[in-house]
Amino acid sequence: MEKSVKMMDGYPFLSYQRPQVTASDLLKRSADFYQSMDERRTVRDFSDQPIPKEVIDNLIRTASSAPSGAHKQPWTFCVVSNPEIKKQIRNEAEKEEHESYNGRMSEEWLQDLRPLQTDWHKPFLETAPYLIVVFKKVFDLSEEGEKKTNYYVTESVGLACGFLLAAIHHAGLVALTHTPSPMNFLAKVLNRPENERPFLLIPVGYAAENTYVPDLKRKPLDQVAVYY
Ligand code: IYR
């Protein structure tokens, strides 16, 4: 459909329409999407089967379509497929995680993680064909090196990561939301500028054959929603 343009205080606005969906189609579409998303699981065992880079490009395009404060899109998605860099990230992550599992994490925390059976070993950081390291831009830097404010940075980057995980699942791949802690080493290894802070490390790939995931139950609607 032809888009019409309207100027508002000197800024262009485009007419916007979504197709009119009937109530019964809304029900079907929302239920189908829920069913598909409910099949998403966090996976820790990856196949090393390669994936075309163009797929990763599309996943990141989707993530970067998320809403953000004042439309600043305060994120950078670093895509690592180089085996040497993956090895370096694994070594640094395992160093930190070893410390965390052996003294930095509380007994309660370790107990909470028992059903997930995680430990400091992170082989997936080398096995997965791609690591997407997401950085948040706590401020922007203009070409002249001037600081520019970003808004709701954590919320914005969290939303973009949600879009990314949905896109990965929709494409037929799996991911892990990994938070090696502390994760400042990622900024160093990837040589990121001073305005970027590591936010999440997301290995992406096919699941390994014979993958098992913990038998987790999701909270029913009445435990997560309140209607007024
Ligand atoms: N970062 C550690 C520990 C960990 C913490 C939480 I909260 C998890 O949900 C899972 C793991 C690790 O990656 O093993």
What does this protein look like?
The chain starts with a strand and ends with a helix. Helix 2 crosses helix 6. The chain has helices spanning 23-38, 53-63, 83-104, 107-113, 124-127, 153-171, 185-189, 221-224, and strands spanning 5-8, 11-14, 75-80, 130-137, 139-141, 147-149, 174-175, 196-205. It is an alpha+beta fold and 228 residues long. It has a single domain (40-208), classed as NADH Oxidase. The strands form 3 sheets. A 4-stranded antiparallel β-sheet has the order 3-4-8-7. Strands 1-2 form a two-stranded antiparallel sheet. Strands 5-6 form a two-stranded antiparallel sheet. It has 8 helices and 8 strands; from the N terminus they run ββααβαααβββαβαβα. The longest helix is centred in the middle third of the chain and has 22 residues, at 83-104. It binds 3-iodo-tyrosine.
List the helices and strands and how they pair.
Layout: E1 5-8, E2 11-14, H1 23-38, H2 53-63, E3 75-80, H3 83-104, H4 107-113, H5 124-127, E4 130-137, E5 139-141, E6 147-149, H6 153-171, E7 174-175, H7 185-189, E8 196-205, H8 221-224
Antiparallel strand pairs: 1-2, 3-4, 4-8, 5-6, 7-8
Bound molecules: 3-iodo-tyrosine (IYR).
Residues 97, 113, 116, 118, 178-181 line the site of 3-iodo-tyrosine.
